[in-house]
């Protein structure tokens, strides 16, 4: 079910350190603005993981890591529970379908899909930063159809690619359902957790996860999510968007060099 063995030796030294550091930063950023995959997927590919394994590893780490952020948001009473049931189901189903779809592509095609989709995920994350104001604009919209369609589509994107999903959930909940940014960020963690589970199952069934490497990555991601969610509750996290832009920009440049020159 899980990929291990020779991979452990290959990634053990500098590779594992990079993955642990990337997991910590990804958890911190994801808890505030979404976008863990923008950091984790390129990091996994930079240490030599095949694209399918990079996508599956991101799901392994993010699915468990986001639990720390969810716990803090629940304690802060920032989650809108009325829209959770239908959103959870549709996000999970959409992500499972998306993950099964991406696994149909050969490795070399997935590499280019990841490289082309990264800017979309990055733009979604950065655009979220343009949404200002924490006060709700009118009554929260709880339409079952709106929630179902939104979570199904974003969930499919999460399973098919992933990076930027948290930001897309935040944007949708803020603009369509009229949640405040804090409520949108908090509630999106539940939906993102559900879509992660759907994709997690699909990638695990395909054997595209490295469990032993994932253990320290998960611990670092849990810590990052805890710190990031506490920051999100107390501030708007403006500095995170700048850090995210710089970090992902450097990783995209490195991947571009690898694809076009190496």
TrEMBL record:
Gene Ontology annotations for the cellular component aspect, listed alphabetically: plasma membrane
Localization terms from the record: Cell membrane
Keyword Membrane (UniProt): yes
Primary localization class, coarse: membrane
Membership in a protein family: Belongs to the 4-toluene sulfonate uptake permease (TSUP) (TC 2.A.102) family.
Keyword Methyltransferase recorded: no
Top-level taxonomic group: Bacteria
Membrane-spanning intervals of the chain: 7-25, 31-49, 79-103, 109-127, 147-177, 197-223, 243-260
Membrane topology according to the record: Multi-pass membrane protein
Source organism: Moraxella cuniculi DSM 21768
Keyword terms of this UniProt record: Cell membrane, Membrane, Transmembrane, Transmembrane helix, Transport
InterPro entries in UniProt: TM_pro_TauE-like (IPR002781), TSUP (IPR052017)
Pfam families named among the record's database cross-references: TauE
Name recorded for this polypeptide: Probable membrane transporter protein
């Amino acid at each position: 079910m899980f990929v291990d063995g020779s991979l452990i030796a290959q990634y053990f030294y500098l590779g594992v350190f990079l993955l642990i550091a990337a997991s910590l930063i990804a958890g911190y950023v994801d808890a505030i603005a979404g976008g863990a995959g923008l950091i984790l997927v390129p990091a996994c590919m930079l240490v030599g993981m095949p694209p399918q394994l990079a996508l599956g590893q991101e799901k392994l780490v993010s699915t468990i890591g986001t639990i720390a952020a969810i716990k803090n948001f629940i304690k802060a009473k920032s989650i809108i529970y009325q829209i959770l049931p239908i959103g959870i189901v549709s996000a999970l189903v959409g992500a499972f379908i998306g993950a099964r779809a991406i696994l149909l592509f050969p490795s070399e095609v997935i590499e280019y899909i990841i490289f082309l989709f990264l800017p979309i995920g990055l733009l979604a994350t950065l655009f979220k930063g343009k949404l200002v104001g924490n006060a709700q604009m009118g009554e929260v919209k709880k339409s079952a159809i709106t929630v179902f369609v939104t979570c199904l589509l974003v969930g499919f994107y999460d399973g098919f690619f992933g990076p930027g999903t948290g930001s897309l959930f935040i944007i949708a909940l803020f603009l369509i359902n009229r949640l405040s940014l804090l409520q949108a960020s908090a509630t999106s963690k539940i939906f993102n957790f559900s879509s992660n589970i759907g994709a997690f199952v699909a990638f695990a069934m395909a054997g595209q996860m490295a469990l032993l490497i994932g253990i320290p990555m998960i611990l670092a991601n849990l810590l990052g999510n805890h710190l990031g969610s506490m920051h999100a509750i107390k501030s708007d996290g403006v500095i995170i968007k700048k850090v995210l832009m710089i970090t992902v920009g450097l990783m995209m440049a490195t991947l571009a060099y690898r694809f076009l020159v190496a």
